[in-house]
User: Fold this.
Amino acid sequence: MTVVVLHLSDIHIRSKQDPIIANGQLIAACVYQELPEASAVFIVVSGDIAYSGKHEEYEAAEGLFNQIKATIVAEKNVPIHFVLAPGNHDCDFSLSGKPRLLTLNAVRDDPKQLDDEVIKLGVSVQVEFESFAARLHSEDETRTGDPLWKKHRFSIEGKEIVFDTINVAWCSNIKEEAGSLIFPVDRYKDFGNESTDLRVSILHHPLNWFRQSTYHSFRQLVRRVANVVVSGHEHVGGAGEDANTDTGHSAYIEGCVLQGERNLAESSFNVVVFNLDEGT
Assistant:
């Protein structure tokens, strides 16, 4: 059996008038040739769905996503699932006051201060994203986790598939700087101790955006947990493999920009096919 992943990233939707909104059918058509053997299609978005985390931006995004789904289903009646991770543009920074900024700066200098209250403050700018992601919950999906790490489990024709959406934008600021992100790795050190046929981790920022105090342990955790790591943010697509003596073998997929500053001049995305019978 195969599953198809339509990987979108960095859509930056401002309104229903955005040029990308009218292109849902064209995007969907790019998976048609993979549908005959597909048992399911996953529409995976590695962040920056919205431009500034506003309700009306997600309303426009929902129209685009529904159009993509309907077009695929019209070609083949196959289950469609959405899996979304937030990016920095999915944060509504108008909700971020001085307490959030001061707290996050303090925790960057002293990660031992990172606790539930700090996380609650950090994710307070992602309210509209969370509401949007909840609306796209699939009936056949088991979703567990917390605001920073959610596991989306699917059972398809006897195969167990898990998508991890890792919220690395929880501590984002309006002016993002490379090397500034942090993550409480120890909270999730046991997340790799389960058996799956395919496990995909999705995060917005690539690993080079993390602070040195987080970088090595976070990289090790993500690569150990996942067969495939999917990211976005840098607007440059790519794919490859990593082999490490500590974390084993994994692959990575880097997202392109679906709608950038030049509108659709640079628009691109990824279509990935996993053959779960052959492990490829």
User: Anything to note?
Assistant: The first helix runs from residue 24 to 29.
